[in-house]
Amino acid sequence: MTATKGLEGVVAASSSISSIVDGVLTYRGYDIDDLAVNASFEEVAYLLWFGKLPNQNELDQLQKDLDKYAVLPDALIEQMKLYPKDMNRMAALRSAISALALYDEQADDMSREANELKVIKLQAQLPSIVAALGRIAEGQEPVAPLQGVSIAHNFLYMLTGEQPEDTAIKALDQALVLHADHELNASTFAARVTVATLSDMYSGITSAIGALKGPLHGGANEAVMKMLEEIGSEDRVESYIQEQLSNKVKIMGFGHRVYKNGDPRAKHLQKMSRELGEMNNDLSLYNMSVQIEEIVTGSKGLKPNVDFYSASVYTMLGIPRNLFTPIFAISRVSGWAAHILEQYENNRIIRPRAEYVGPNNQEYRPVTER
Ligand code: ACO
After folding, report:
1. Of 165, 182, 288, 334, which is most buried with the most CB atoms under 10 A?
2. In which pathway is this protein known to take part (predicted)?
3. In the chain, which residues have pLDDT < 70?
4. What's the pTM?
5. Going edge to edge, which strands form the sheet with 24-27?
């Protein structure tokens, strides 16, 4: 038995949700380039869960269901208020989602019907939790969700307490579409491993949030922004990046296990970053990002991934850095939930083997003889 480090190239599941073939990402057979420009996040979430784009009635019903469940249990809000103010927002989100199961009487109901309802509840509640955590950490009261508006609109409203501009809603909605699913990425795999023991959906989503938090996965978007802040100005980019590269420090937001010729999502976020910079009359973050890309791609051949330009996009939307990865989760919960439903439909426990490389033939000695 020989282990493949990081399971590179290992095909660990069959799935009909999303695919990456020759650098092209599709959700249920629809090219991400098509969906990013034309579809709303709600349409994409429905597509991931139910395998087809919704008609108008189905979309209206989804909106009603999302409205119904976006309101958080009071007990959860009270609990979140007890979290330390300097909480890591992803750690807090992981705890809050785990706690949410305690307030759902159907949490352990494993019927398809109950699980489909949990998908909607989680999709509705996750943005409310992230916005509430963001406000609570700043000493503000959470804002109740609006009814009849998109998730992007509602999230920006709940975070700021003000009606967002159309351009901000459109940009966030497109970012949510681009992050919704990505084949067997680390957090989705974590979710599938957890529910393959026939554990409940909240456990699967909690596992996924834990995996997304790391800087080699979703946490990279916050690390990119930290880097941009450290660099500070366009004239410092060259020396900063060259120093990092010569010290063999990874540049966050670059490289990918699957894409070697570029991440198809990155170009949409780059365009959005430029457009938001032009609108704000401040292209500094965009220009710094482009310069970093030129250097890293030029010297290492590494291309930006989905996290690289999302950092400048979220900053220009007025979102604080420590909410970037939770926003990734607002979108990716749609994909996690679709994968959990798929796993339940054709389940077998996921239990691979390990190549043992430790010592052999050890002899036990009592503690007094060691
Ligand atoms: N900066 C500098 N060098 C890099 C980078 C980077 N961002 N990424 C990879 N490399 C180098 C590695 O050091 C390694 O070089 P070596 O062969 O000389 O040792 C080589 O490229 C291969 O890299 P691995 O880390 O082995 O690639 P792996 O497939 O295991 O990891 C990963 C992929 C985690 C995305 C990696 O590229 C990375 O750490 N990137 C930075 C973090 C990041 O942006 N993560 C977000 C990924 S997208 C997502 O999850 C949403």
Report:
1. 334
2. Carbohydrate metabolism; tricarboxylic acid cycle; isocitrate from oxaloacetate: step 1/2
3. none
4. 0.97
5. 18-21, 24-27, 30-31
